[in-house]
Amino acid sequence: DDPSRRRALPAHCVTVFVPLRDMTRALGPTEFFPGTHATFDPRALGDAMAGRADGLAFDDAEAGSAICFDARILHRGLPNTTADTDRPLLYFTYAKPWFRDATNYSTVSLFDDDDSGGDGASGRRSVLASS
Q1: Alpha-carbon distance 21 to 86, whole Å?
Q2: What tens digit of pLDDT does each residue of 16-35 get?
Q3: Is the Cα torsion angle 84, 90, 96, 98 positive or negative in sign?
Q4: pTM of the model
Q5: How far is the C-alpha of 75 from the C-alpha of 91, rounded, in Å?
Q6: How would DSSP label each residue in the chain?
Q7: Dist. CA 75–CA 31, nearest whole Å
Q8: Segment 86-120, tens digit of pLDDT
């Protein structure tokens, strides 16, 4: 069974990024690996994750523009090399009603295991401070 001959199903989840400031390479835009949403070849995914594949980054996206993509595409945030400039964006996900994203979102809260004595405040601050 040749993985490259399998057909991908149509998109069941689409993500939209809207940068709130003009993007530059220094801000660390999201890098996408075209075709990885449709491949079933683990070597292709491994090459992308190991830096042996060329990605596509929208480092010239203007504030307010929309970047839409199939949520299955391999993507990652590049490093923000600026000293003090954030890269805020709006993030929307549109999915078929039956889809549940267990990869990016789980049923475990980030705030369940904190050291606050039960009110979640201390854990919340530590999570926000590390992001």
Answers
A1: 9
A2: 999 999 999 999 999 888 88
A3: positive
A4: 0.68
A5: 14
A6: --GGGPPPPPPSEEEEEEESS---GGG--EEE-TTTTT---HHHHHHHHTT-S--EE-TTPPTT--EEEETTS-EEEPP--SSS----EEEEEEE-TT---TTT--SS-TTSS-SSSSSSHHHHHHHHHH-
A7: 5
A8: 999 999 999 999 988 777 666 666 566 555 444 44
